[in-house]
């Protein structure tokens, strides 16, 4: 199955947001002429629409479901001060001396970007400040995190390496060897963020049509006809912001990444006695294990954490295994009770980060985000809007690159499942090694 074939309703998640005000649910039923047509109502699409409309262009945005149906409202709400999962020095190696620093600068100001937009357009994303911790699950990953802290400290950022004791004070257990606390990062309500941006886009003049899946593009001279089942938009420029939910709209595009389903689980509020013992004063935490691990504590005491990954149809996550993973880190959480769960898709790709493509003259896309899309999706959408409005490609945060197919896509599910098992084995082995290092440290200290 393709991600776009998931059930049509928006998911029920831990995020409450006021009703999406000012954005009518209407589907396209006529031919409209605009400067720019946008496909997808996630962070990329909505931000591109808002920026282009504010630059004086007429914009029509077509969302196949309802705003927030894609990963925009299915994510963990962590806004790290990084442009991708790559370490900042690897960002420079991957994107080069010109674009690497631009990507790092965009990542570094991502939390400010989100808060600035909320402030500017007058909506509340319920930010949880204090920073995001990345714990080293064994000492083999400590250098990577120390280097990360040093890189950002050199740039004057508030990012610190914490040894085991200092980290234990913050996290609430001594599970980790040590870790990095990036005090710039925040956690937000992503549903409120996408709703706030969509409402701002409508106020700026964007025409949003929901329940309007785009079924095809047709080039007519120097214009594009963007067709839905009930109507069409004729525009000089087209921006696609469909990321992991990219279907067959553009030949080969969905073969440029491996879609991975990520699950999120949230619990009933933790008992008062234990609530104050975990994640003190921080926004969220992650760690260096290969298998997705992330947690955040909401101000009302509900714990939200990753519930594993999958490659096919949505299934109820394995709560027992997920609780065990949480208790491995925070053993004091003996009373965990599930309140709900949901899932959404991310992309795993070749460079494992955002890519910009000009698929044909006037038709662009930003794609390939693997879990750093809340703020960076906005950055990418704004970049595509700038380009559509005449800013030269060389001024953008990333260059346009040629789409590259991932080889072996036909077998990505069984291979993905095998890789997942291997990663789990590696993570367990490293944790065991860390235990034996600790016993050796104790013996030599005693
Ligand atoms: C479980 C999970 C946890 C995550 N956690 C984080 C996190 O903590 N921090 C972070 O920064 N990122 C996180 N992410 C990633 C982040 O949510 C995504 O990178 C981001 O939402 C991508 O934005 P987008 O606009 O490109 O795509 P999306 O938000 O997915 O939007 C794409 C939209 O395109 C629409 N669409 C597709 N095809 C068509 C068509 N033919 N016609 C019309 N519309 C179409 C879809 O309906 C969808 O609404 C997470 C993602 C998941 C799934």
Helix content: 25-40%
* Number of strand segments: 18
The helix-and-strand class reads: alpha/beta
Largest sheet: 8 strands, mixed
- Distance from N terminus to C terminus (CA atoms, Å) equals 57 Å
Q: Approximately how much beta-strand content do the residues carry? A: 15-25%
Radius of gyration: 22 Å
Low-confidence stretches: none
Helical stretch count? 10
Mean pLDDT: 94
User: Which molecules other than protein and nucleic acid are bound?
Assistant: flavin-adenine dinucleotide
Order of helices and strands: EHEEHHEHEHEEHEEEEEHEEEHEEEHH
Shape: globular
Describe this structure in words.
The protein is α/β, with parallel strands linked by helices. The chain has helices at residues 43-54, 88-108, 110-121, 142-154, 164-171, 190-203, 272-275, 319-329, 376-388, 412-445; strands at residues 31-39, 59-62, 78-79, 132-136, 159-163, 178-182, 186-187, 207-209, 214-220, 223-228, 232-240, 257-267, 284-287, 294-297, 303-310, 338-349, 355-360, 363-367. Strands 1, 2, 8, 9, 10, 11, 17 and 18 form an eight-stranded mixed sheet that branches. The chain has an eight-stranded mixed sheet with strand order 5-6-4-13-14-15-12-16, with helices on both faces. A hairpin with a 5-residue loop joins strand 14 and strand 15 (303-310). The longest helix has 34 residues, at 412-445. The mean pLDDT is 94. Residues 4, 39-45, 62-65, 69-72, 74-78, 213-214, 241-245, 247, 249, 262, 264, 344-346, 369, 371-374, 377 line the site of flavin-adenine dinucleotide. Residues 4, 39-45, 62-65, 69-72, 74-78, 213-214, 241-245, 247, 249, 262, 264, 344-346, 369, 371-374, 377 line the site of flavin-adenine dinucleotide (FAD).
């Amino acid at each position: 199955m393709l991600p776009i074939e998931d059930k049509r309703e928006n998911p029920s998640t831990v995020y409450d947001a006021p009703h999406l005000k000012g954005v009518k649910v209407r589907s396209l039923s006529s031919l409209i002429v605009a400067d720019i047509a946008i496909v997808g109502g996630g962070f990329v699409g909505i931000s591109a629409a808002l920026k282009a409309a504010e630059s004086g262009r007429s914009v029509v945005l077509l969302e196949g479901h309802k705003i927030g149906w894609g990963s925009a409202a299915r994510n963990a709400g962590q806004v790290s001060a990084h442009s991708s999962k790559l370490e900042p020095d690897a960002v420079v190696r991957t994107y080069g001396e010109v674009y690497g620093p631009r990507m790092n600068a965009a990542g570094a100001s991502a939390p400010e970007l989100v808060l600035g937009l909320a402030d500017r357009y007058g909506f509340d994303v319920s930010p949880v400040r204090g920073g995001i911790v990345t714990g080293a699950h064994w000492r083999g990953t400590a250098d990577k995190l120390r280097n990360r802290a040093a890189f950002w400290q050199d740039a004057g950022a508030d990012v610190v390496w914490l040894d085991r004791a200092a980290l234990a004070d913050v996290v609430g257990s001594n599970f980790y060897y040590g870790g990095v606390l990036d005090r710039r990062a925040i956690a937000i309500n992503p549903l409120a963020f996408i709703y706030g941006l969509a409402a701002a886009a409508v106020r700026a003049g964007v025409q949003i049509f929901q329940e309007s899946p785009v079924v095809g593009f047709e080039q007519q001279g120097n214009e594009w006809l963007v067709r839905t089942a009930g109507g069409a938009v004729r525009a000089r420029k087209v921006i696609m912001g469909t990321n992991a939910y990219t279907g067959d709209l553009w030949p080969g595009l969905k073969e440029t990444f491996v879609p991975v389903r990520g699950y999120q689980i949230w619990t009933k509020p933790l008992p008062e006695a234990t609530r104050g013992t975990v994640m003190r004063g921080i926004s969220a935490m992650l760690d260096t294990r290969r298998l997705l691990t992330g947690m955040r504590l909401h101000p009302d005491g509900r714990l939200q954490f990753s519930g594993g990954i999958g490659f096919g149809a949505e299934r109820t996550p394995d709560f027992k295994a997920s609780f065990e993973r949480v208790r491995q880190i925070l053993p004091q959480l003996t009373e965990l009770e599930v309140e709900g769960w949901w899932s959404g898709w991310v992309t795993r790709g070749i460079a494992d980060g955002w890519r910009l493509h000009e698929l044909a003259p006037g038709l662009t896309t930003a794609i390939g985000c693997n879990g750093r899309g809340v703020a960076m999706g906005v950055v990418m959408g704004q970049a595509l809007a700038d380009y559509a409005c005449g800013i030269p490609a060389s001024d953008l945060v990333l260059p346009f690159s040629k789409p590259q197919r991932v080889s072996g896509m036909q077998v990505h599910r069984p291979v993905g499942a095998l890789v997942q098992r291997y990663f789990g084995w590696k993570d367990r082995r490293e944790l065991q090694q860390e235990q034996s290092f600790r016993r050796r440290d104790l013996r030599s200290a005693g």
